[in-house]
Amino acid sequence: MRRALLVPVLTALLVVAIVVNLGAGAVQIGPLQVVDILFGTGLGEPAAAGQSAVLLQIRAPRVALCALTGACLAVSGAALQGVFRNPLADPGIIGVTSGAAVGAAASIVIGLSTFGGATAGLAAFAGGLAAAAVGYFAARHQGRTEVVTLVLTGVAVSAIAGAAVGVFIYLADDNELRTLIFWTMGSLGTATWPGVKAVAPLLILSTVALPFFARGLNALVLGEREARHLGFHPERLRIGVIVLAALGTGAAVSLTGAIGFVGLVIPHLIRLIAGPDHRLLLPASAIGGAALLLAADLISRTAVAPAEMPVGVITALIGGPFFLLLLIRSRRLSGGWA
Amino acid sequence: MKRVIALAAALLVAMTACGQAEAEPQAAPQAVQRIVPLTGDIAEIVWALGLGDQVVGVDTSALYPAQAAAKEPKIGYQRQLAAEGILSLQPTIVIGTPEAGPAEVITQIKQAGIRTEIVALPTTVDDVAQRIKTVAGLLGVSAEGDQLAAKVAKEIADAKGTSSPTRVAFLYVRGAGTAMIGGTGTRASAMIAATGFVDAGATSGVQGYKTITAEALAAAKPDVLVLLDAGLESIGGVDGVLKLPGVAQTPAGAAKKIVSLEDTYLLNLGPRTGSALKDLRAKVSG
């Protein structure tokens, strides 16, 4: 029963979150006006020009980016946890987040502007993919990778990336330093339509494609040899998930900066409600991730309006204690995690 | 069930009504501007021009005058602004410097049809008068701007010193963990240059702000150290500065020549710069 209702309930939550996020914010726009601006129905009082600009140029791209990023991070996290058979896996484990930070830091501190305003984003994307690739190929031996090695190379790549960011922080002047620090806290405030359109294909690709690995991931739970006997190819499964997660996460963080905890906590929440079946876990994580990030962004936009709190701070602030609580509870109930 | 629907409908109507009430001030008379200075140094100029009562929001770096510091609402820090928050104040003009950002947010404000002006950053004290004129021109008070600019330019000219071999280093300190020395391209360097002293940081090759090391400081050989009031306080006064690596080995450390000025006073490069130059010279020479 819980399982059957999960997706409809999450979808309803997501729809509510989208509607509320479109309507709420520092600029007041009534629900009827939202409908009017979006669909030109002539309902309610005619909206002021400023209101429709805020809705269409600032809030709408932000809501779109927020939903896509949340979905992509959560589904990537869920799939990676499956592929690594490790509950601590999240998109950061393959080094993509730390690699992206290096790319962003490098472009900010060196002052690159080859591609105009999009330079830092492109550098972050490239850095994220490069780090994921280095991690994967370092772990690959005779055409196959081994999970523990893969996790450890991810840790090593992240450590190296952390050091590289440290070098750039050392080199940065006061202004660059602040830009850099705000980048690491994540923000959805810089969402514009051109930016969203640039990353949307990759975000949608990994969000939609990852759930198709569900049956393979289910088989992998039994063990690698068992999965092979069931007709799945663990190595192909791994590379498929890693490439998709790296592409999606890299694209997301290139625009938003590092947003923590969505990719880690959401899959666990869903698993707690729906059990470990990836066929339900993956799509439900995507929907839940989108809804959660929208909720976090709503708080980030309205808590200290007209100023804004970095969204990464909110997700970690809510996600951290919540996760801790879950851990303690599950420990009490079953004597351990999973 | 009916009651729920009625309640929901009432809520909807109320929310729509709220939306309209908020939109009302846009019909305000044209003569009164709704100004949002995006950075603290611009805010200081706006207040100096007597337009403080037309400011509808400031960033958290607007600390002078006291009215600006007390002004609500705050739009966040100048480098981490949010477009929607600023638009919600229904400004007729927002003025910033290239330090205001992120760049996308500035673009968003422009795209929403708000007049958005970016004023160049000053590199020397001689840019101050032109800066005041530019801001005044943007706000439609050129006459007042010319007057203020002339006054400030004269104060600055009077306060400028003849060159002196005294080596002055600016230290940016925030607690014992953060101690940086200022060099070329910083506003502190512009101030030191205008007083006629030698900028010990810049002449020893420091660019921007760099974390101090004992050796770098010894190489800079400053006779006097200049800090910000808040920085000096954060490290526990002169005694705290003397404990920083290398400070005791400099001529300034040996003679305990460590002075401080208020943050925005020294670094805003605005209407108070003439007087700040005079104070800086007096403190360094005294």
TrEMBL record, chain A:
GO molecular function terms listed in the Swiss-Prot or TrEMBL record: transmembrane transporter activity
Q: Which GO terms describe its biological process?
A: siderophore-iron import into cell
Subcellular localization, per the record? Cell membrane
Annotated Gene Ontology cellular component terms: plasma membrane
Q: Does Cell membrane appear among the keywords?
A: yes
Keywords of this entry: Cell membrane, Membrane, Transmembrane, Transmembrane helix, Transport
Q: Where are the transmembrane segments?
A: 62-80, 92-112, 118-138, 150-172, 198-221, 241-274, 280-299, 311-328
Q: Is the keyword Transmembrane helix in the record?
A: yes
- The superkingdom listed in its UniProt entry is Bacteria
SUPFAM superfamilies, per database record = ABC transporter involved in vitamin B12 uptake, BtuC
Topological relation to the membrane, as annotated: Multi-pass membrane protein
Family label? Belongs to the binding-protein-dependent transport system permease family. FecCD subfamily.
Q: What is this protein called?
A: ABC transporter permease
Q: Which organism is it from?
A: Rhizocola hellebori
The uppermost taxa in this organism's lineage are: Bacteria, Bacillati, Actinomycetota, Actinomycetes, Micromonosporales
From TrEMBL, chain B:
Q: Where is the Fe/B12 periplasmic-binding domain?
A: 34-286
* Keyword Signal appears in the UniProt entry: yes
In terms of PROSITE patterns, this protein maps to: FE_B12_PBP, PROKAR_LIPOPROTEIN
Record InterPro entries = ABC_Transporter_SBP, ABC_transptr_periplasmic_BD
Superkingdom, natural source: Bacteria
Keywords (A to Z) from UniProt: Signal
A single Pfam family, by name? Answer: Peripla_BP_2
Annotated signal sequence is 1-23
Name the Gene3D superfamilies for this protein: Nitrogenase molybdenum iron protein domain
Respond yes or no to whether keyword Signal is given for this record: yes
Query: Which PANTHER family would you find in this protein's record?
Result: HEMIN-BINDING PERIPLASMIC PROTEIN HMUT, VITAMIN B12-BINDING PROTEIN
Q: Which protein family is named in the record?
A: Belongs to the bacterial solute-binding protein 8 family.
Q: What is this protein called?
A: Fe/B12 periplasmic-binding domain-containing protein
